[in-house]
Design a protein that fits this description.
The protein is of the alpha+beta class and 224 residues long. Helix content is 31%, strand content 24%. Helix 1 packs antiparallel against helix 3 and helix 4 packs across helix 6.
Amino acid sequence: MNWTETWRNAFRTELRAEAIGLAWHGWPVVPGTYPEGSRWVGRAGTPQDGPIPLHDDWLELAGAAPSEVASRWTGRPYSLLLATGFTLDVLDISAELGRRTATELRAIGLVAPIAATPTGRWLFPVATGDPLCAELDRHPEVVLHGRGSWIPLPPSPFVHGVVHWRVKPEVSGWQVPRSSDVQQAVVDALHNERPTAAGTAVLATTTRNAAGSPGRPDVLPWSA
């Protein structure tokens, strides 16, 4: 038995199942390039050092139904990319600052999905709508991914390792916090302070369901 091929088949199946599950919960996912040895393959003629969307029209493909998503993850271990700016934005933070931010979130009892990449980035999915606050807008360790951008989700492969969940979406009931709430936690982490009483009161009341909550925009058709 070729165990290498068996493992590859199982991994492709896992990526496909995760893509379908995310689409079922309203997360707009599109297939991306994947590593083969030290190279990224799947989209010829496009320089890249990480996963990028497989298709030129990926913005139009985002938000597809689970059945359509299932048909796109066949044959190859395509990366699982979240198209941001539709139902979700993502705060992309350096690993050390991400750990401290997660500590701040735990301190005020806010459970939120968190993913981490093998390249040292922590990813915090948040509700769309809030720009970066002034203190974080030019911070070198913080990026806000919105419309026209994307981020890799678990278990997308990298040349060295895979993207993994630090906190799975199931733990928060597929709810994500407002961007402003996580940004406040980042600011608190930067200053090594616990949230103030006022900040805690705000953070405690601002979770929302990415899969469907009052006032959430409909799913529409995320840069690495």
